[in-house]
Amino acid sequence: MERIHSSRYLKLSLKTVIKNDLIQSLILGLIFITLLLTSCAGTGTQANAVMAKYDPSIKSENEHLAKSERLNTELAQKEKNFRKAYSAADYKIGPEDLLEIDVFQVPELKATVRVSAKGYIKLPLADTIEVSGLSVAELESLISKKLQKFVMEPMVGVFVREYRSQQISVLGSVKDPKTYYATGQKYLLDMLSMAGGLAPDAGSVCIIQRSVKGDSENKEFVEKIVVDLDELLIHGSAELNIPIFSGDVVQVPKSGIFFVDGAVRVPGEYPLKAKLTLTQAIGMARGKDYTASNSEMKIYRDMGNQGKEVISVDYDAVLAGQSPDVLIKDKDIILVDQSTIKRIINTLSGAVNLGAFTIGGGRPF
Known about the structure:
Layout: H1 2-41, H2 43-53, H3 61-83, E1 98-103, E2 111-114, E3 120-123, E4 127-130, H4 136-147, E5 156-162, E6 166-172, E7 178-182, E8 186-187, H5 188-194, E9 205-213, E10 220-228, H6 229-234, E11 243-244, E12 249-252, E13 257-262, E14 268-271, H7 278-284, E15 292-302, E16 308-314, H8 315-319, E17 333-338, H9 340-353
Parallel strand pairs: 6-12, 13-17
Antiparallel strand pairs: 1-2, 1-5, 3-4, 6-7, 8-11, 9-10, 9-12, 13-14, 15-16, 15-17
């Protein structure tokens, strides 16, 4: 009698297992079909959702204000902290400066002279010297060389008694952009403070344009120095607080941003600094995730009144050097497509591994 009951129980258990396996197969099959259909039809919907999510026109101004306030707070503090790190040795002598020149143990050669409008001074024995653009140490060395014919081992000291009025322009995203008249040696933080600090739309870099004399034919060219304001103000890199000279133009560009979404590890908004390529942008988003397509990427670029331009990129070809690495522009939206097969496999494996389905009070699938 017990054997008959055991046999019936075994048959019922086998029927239950087969039935549950069939239900599991049907559910997974329906999931597979649903994902396949939605992945085929959902590309456009995903793109529209991403573009709406990162629409720059609805970006909150509070984020810009919060960042600029933080940078301005750091600016006020760092200006005081870094001021002692530099001396007048960085100063470049210019027209209208009043110089006091002393030669050790030769009082006859002591003189107080004003630099001419063309940048020259005239000294006993040393005659006419072009001093404009020289530092104090460079001028001391130059005068010593000229006096060697008349004085044995001359020791020359130069002191700037009166500084000329220097014209330095601070432009762009500062609170009071204009040309300033400054005296004495000024540094980048000094000039940003004179301009009232950074405006709410200021970016994270500052560009100093400076006229520099070339090696040949005394020609001049414009040198551009880029300073990372985050490194200077937030991370406290004092060496970036460079000296600013007469005629320099300090430019603070507006902030640039770009967006990365889709199959990346850290989607979101990122600052656009200088020249940035697609591969670098994906790197800032910590790279592609498991479900990412091996090739398909799209860049949605704002073309103003012409709407959005869609740039399709074969990312594998870029990595292989077969296609150029695209330069990212302000307000670009990078969408990394998902691989349909990888997405389905990932979803199905998650459903099975996590026991997502339970039939009645039976065992989980």
